[in-house]
## 1
Amino acid sequence: MTGTTGDTRRRLLQTASAGFGYVALAGLLARADESSELAQPQVAQPLAPRPTHFPPRAKRVIFLCMQGGPSHVDTFDYKPQLIADAGKTIGAGRRSLMAPVSPFRQRGQSGLWISDLFPSLAEQADKLCLLRSLHCDQPPPPRAVTPMHTGNAQFVRPSLGAWTLYGLGTENDSLPGFVALNAPPASAQNYGSAFLPAVYQGSRVGPSVQRGPAQARAAGTAPALPDIRNPRMSRDAQRRQLDFIQELNRQKLEREEVQPGVEGVIESYELAFRMQDSLPDLMDLSAESQATQTLYGLDENQTSVFGRPCLLARRFVEAGVRFVEINHGNWDHHARLETDLQARSREVDRPIAGLLADLDQRGLLKDTLVMWGGEFGRTPDAQNGSGRDHNHRGYTYWMAGGGVKGGFSYGSTDEHGAAAVENKCHVHDWHATILHLLGLDHTKLTYRYAGRNFRLTDVYGNVVHDILS
Amino acid sequence: REIVSSRAYRLSSAWNRQRFEQDPDNLYFARAQPRRLQAEVLRDCMLAASGRLDLQRPRGSMVAQYPAAILGPNGPVGTVMAPAATRPGAGPGMSPAGGPETSTGGPLARRLQQLGGAAGRFRPGQVQGNPFDASVAYRSVYLPVARGLLPRALEVFDFAEPSMVIGQRESSNTPAQALYLLNNRFVIEQSEVLASRLQQESADRTSQIQLAFRLVYGRAATEQELAASQSFLLQAADVSVGLAEFCQALFATAEFRYVN
């Protein structure tokens, strides 16, 4: 191609069938071919159970979402040096260090260090797997709650529960597959399906829980799903009406013979009618024994607010719901940490301990993944004298059940708990690990939207293999 | 114009065995592809059938009538002002669509009362359902769309997520849509209004059924449909209740939800 003036690079590429343009085009065509073959599952039953990438360790998830950012140094991340250095202005913070508001003790056979704020949960220490090196990108709340759910603070993306349902389908076709209990108002994005089909979005069940004491009042009312009950008609009258609707649908189907859409409509009405029957029954907690109700703390005002959704969550997962998220608010303690953290911990301690014990005794814990945590932790140094500021550089999550090591602690923060230093685990890594536990490869669980394949973990995420049992 | 006047565009969606066998996936447009009605169209069609559809633009936005607390987790708890437009006899855009039992005050005012209690003080912990579900009769394009909060009439029928760029809406078929059409107050209200319209405009049952089919589907009922409708109406204890349930059933069918 040298020597003759006509053989410029441009000319070569214009004429040669293997020019860059051709190479690029061939690549595009191959890709288009591939993507049409691996097209999204446009199946009649998008919620049918789907095979996993490899054998799962957990089949379902209960996510206890503590909104506001519970302090890790006061709860599950024991820092003796923080006690020793209390009052000094050293380390990462600009303000003086504040000792944990409650003493820590070693618990269970495993000797995990757990704060006295969680006396009941501490009795189940050998079930807990502490992840003490979480960190995330985006500090200000409530925005940080979103990446915790979707992996992305900037754009609207499907939530963890929606990805789970998309990946696994559901085991009970008369209930929603992804349930968000007591979700705060205007938080639809956190349990939404974004570009995934709408069937994968979380169904918000129960009253919305506003942060603060309003929560206690709101939770007293019966939880409900929108439009789950007809305000006028009896069940029999409605069945008669539905039979008429289905008769008209069937006549249309007979007239037009091949109409997959109409078949889908017929199916969805029967499903809705079943849901209408089963959901209120499932949410009626009076069928539970007194002992079970007490186990979840329903006998006390302070604990019943969170105990009720915890008991509901057990009933949901038992019935085959894939992903249940329970929200609990008001963990954002910039001041009065001692009193507020004590109150919040007390509200959730007995219900969570009850949930773990109950799942265990029913044999559900071995394949149910329970996770607890907030969108970030809090600083070791004091804010406003009596509180702690947001801390996204290091905080603690715990998991229990479904394929994680019990009585185990993974990773650590620095001597005061300011930042994760050892075996750091980003939110993306945490997401990748959850999907891995469910038998899904986070790099393969993709959905094509806007011309490319999307994942929960974007281009990040490493599975934390050390915590797998 | 060239597109809409083309043969392919004007094809019927009617099924034909010979054509189906030649083009089972309809890749060569052997027939028109049945499409689902979009959320807005579905709601507007219900209002149009009941005769309630208000083509006027509403004054202002419903969003303005709700305090910030409802739109965001950090908003202050505010006081709901009784909006001028919801007073009885207010502007044409906010005419009540509450059905036969509508009393004084627009449905919005009633809705606000439900939300805020007698004192008009809004407490977010007490919100039951979506505040944007108030039964207003104007066209769906004027319904409020706020971040994280959509009117249910739009939300369940694949409305595009407002905080994303969506090139094409999903076209899903979910039980939530079925529950909406079976149980939602708005749908029930439109059915009742349509039922009373049928009773006013025609006397005997057969012509009421035929009128309903014309208003809802734009065609006459077939023999079979007429028979099924008549036997359904015969079972009803109360004539107007039965007629309202019949109208709701028409709204809930696959036929109403598809463009053929």
## 2
Amino acid sequence: MDNFVKMRFPAKAQNEAFARMAVSAFAMSFDPTISTLSDIKAAVSEAVTNAIIHAYDDDKGEIELRFFSRGRTLYIETEDFGKGIEDVKKAMEPMFTTKSDGERSGLGFTVMESFMDGIEVISKINKGTTVRLKKTIENDF
Amino acid sequence: MQEEEFSLEISFGRKNDALTVKISGEIDHFSCGLIREKTDREYIQRRLKNIELDLSRVTFADSSVIGLIIGRQKVAKSFGGRVSVVGAEGVCERIIRLSALEKIVDVTYGGGKRNG
């Protein structure tokens, strides 16, 4: 592991922008293109938003966000300690959502899968969910 | 939270029978609530038929933008109108292309050069 950052914050919607700024700052040392950086920010935004919307019924939960790097590969883990996902495979299907009345499109995992090089979701009922994302940032110079 | 703190700006106008909505700033789950509320209020007050969402000044978007567009389409449809999207580019364009949105809403891409 070359470098890492670990942070913990309440599962509140206003922290979505904060999480994106944090990953953006961490990824900057790899000199990503603007479009790669936007893709990483979007993927993190999806992971954190999922945790905020789905993990907790009350407003008291927390999210832990961890970044680490190995060579030119960036690893991002978003962990919540909430209710867990009953059927991870189903949750990852495009357009599947349990919150369609909240105008959620069900595309969060689709964006994460498309924009990153790897995704792993580990979930335990009433224990929480961890989403692991991986992205290798090519050296464009 | 104040809009200024979130660097979100929404401006409304009129083009024929459409309400034009120009969004500047970041579209995520948090900002969507505000955009939705203001747009629906303006649309109903002005009694226009269609809604045109101008995304050319959007600096970031995640999949919340899809829910926002489909939601406005539902509102417009209930008044016999429809939604069109203009100026989507960068990450906004990549997310719209990933979704099946183009099947139900008119989308045109390009515009400024702001959002990577």
## 3
Amino acid sequence: MNAVAAFGNRRFYGGGPALAVANPNTSSAIRKISSRPRPVVNDPNLLFGQWYSAVVGRLNLLTGLEQGWDGYSAKAIQFSTADFALEVLKVLSADDTPLPDIIPGSGGELQLEWHTEDRDIELRIFSPFDAVAWLHYPSKPDDDKEVALTSDFAEVGTWLSDIVEQKRAAVESAA
Amino acid sequence: MLPSNPPRDADGIVQPHDHADILLPDKIIRRISKEYIANDPKVQGGKRLSSMAFSSSNDRYRGMSIDLERPILEDNIDPVAFVTTPKWIASVVMTTNQFREEKLQVGYDPMNDNPYHGNVWGKLTPAMVRKFLAESTWYVGIDGIEHPKILI
């Protein structure tokens, strides 16, 4: 079985360990975010739904990239990194959180990116429990933030909540 | 003419260095995979290059791979054709000086299948990458994909 099939099948038929939540260093902050209404992988209505299948499809593609996919010597994204990214997304995503772009790096890392009209959020996962997140305001670069992350992604959750609130406010004002 | 032999460690791996034969105005090409394209409502067309376009490898010294334009030209090879394939559809270009201004090292690291291969060594910070995205220009562009110049 190749890496692509293995990644998809493992998730669709029983799933693996919930990395972020299972980590003994998990903070109360991450549990707080986890308790928000969000998709859960065991929900049969979600299992083949848009959120999950879109993310798993993208991660499958990235774990199956050929060596040299970047035009040089980059290898495919490690399964463990993709698995961790999926777990992080499950923790961070509320029902109306926009899906990020999932971009691979030449060093085997994955970056989750959310870009809106006034800000950019980039969460780079080098390997499980080794990540960095950036919040960038193009019009207010002095307010930029950078945080190193292991298992507590609460700050990124707050950044994403702001985007969701903005989106809700825009919908309400348009109505 | 190819740059002179680069310094290597005991295992034969090229060590980080600033190569004297790679001059400040020399053009440095970075190939762009379609996997580096992200959505961004701030840019025209809604799509842009991700900052991951400037990411380092996970080899021993974590260099960022590049192609050196001048030796390709000196060997009478079309550099656009050399760095472009159906898989690596695009590329961006900067000068050696733009990297060295940021205290990054630009060196020569020939590969079996690419004698014009080099590396940029040093820590690529988010601010630095945003600067590179803004300062670089398409060498071979992708229709409808903008450089995110508004990020600076």
